[in-house]
Amino acid sequence: MGKHVQIMADHRSKLLVCVFLVLTTQTLSELTDKINITYVNSAVEKGAVCLDGTPPAYYHSVGFGDGADNWLVYLEGGAWCNSTETCLERVKIKWLASTSTRPAIRYVSGIFTVNQTFNQAFYNWNKVIIVYCDGASFTGDVEEVDPTTNLHYRGARIFRAVIDDLLAKGMKNAKNAVLTGSSAGGLATILNCDRFRSLVPHATRVKCISDSGFFIHSKNMPGANEREAYFTQVAELHGMAKALPQSCASKMNPGLCLFPEYVIKDMQTPLFILDSLFDLYQIKEMLAPFVGGCKEQWDDCTTNLTLCTSSQLQIMKDHRTAFLETLQEVESPSLGIFVHTCFLHTHVLDKDGWRCSFVARNVLAKKTIEEAIDDWYYDRSSFQQIDTYTTVPRNCTVSRDNDIMNQRCLHPKHVHPMY
To answer: Domains in the chain and their CATH numbers?
Structure first.
């Protein structure tokens, strides 16, 4: 198992480079808004620091109009590190282990745009992006620091320090609040959801949105033991047990609590799951390394679905079945669900994954992702929709040219009846 867990870690190390390239080469033509960085230097004396000891940071777009007292807090993603070696690799890259190389201004779109046309739900809210630099979904807390590595495992302290700073800047008066995040940040959203609710007790409505953060255990699928071992290593290295929801961590191996299926049933705060039955990251990084076959073939398949073999497609179908079964285990009246069949990972930071998701043929019950979440958040609809019609992954890639996207997005919607 050790070899397989290392393979899993190696995949994540390569992913760090991909994350860095995506975040730094995304064309400005599709990113229409800019927000400024704030460093929480006062957090350092509390030990709330990144892996490399730098202070936590966040980007903040100030709310206005009737959204001035509403807050949306977004937790960045970027996988995890499960050993001293993989955490040090992050420090070398810096992007996911430090705030020292983060730009003063960040360009954004999707759920962060102030353009009401493309973000009717949250356009005028206070919107915050908390920088991910701890490697453990904002839930680590180890007091000791090894002087030979100078690694700090303090994700839980970072979360609290940034939230405290936001509370002092007006979030304590929030009327409505949302905690959200993508990938590892989507998992962090689930793990910190009830805690976030307790920190804004005067808000009328507090809910959480997990974007591609519903990582499944898949106990009957290849790699189940390796997935569990990997998350166990993450939990132990970062001292996550005391920061994880105790409804889970007090009853089982804390590493299992990084699989949301073991946490959601005991959550008190309403949660929305936005995900795919064929999540690209889960299939490529958490399943494919353990099913055998040629790595190059899987690389080809996950890059171009037309190159997938019949056996690869069957494995994906089996993953779909496991995902559906896991969803059935956690269903509740307060749980919002938008689970589709596009072969992708993460949604809310782009137009085609948010207001314009119909352009990518990604709608359910004739609702875009933004419309579904808007209805659910304001209790206009419970919205629990899963694309159970499609049994194979769909390519939902669209042009990222801003002018083309705007033209298609503003055009009247023509939606296939099944969606």
So the answer is: 2-410 (3.40.50)
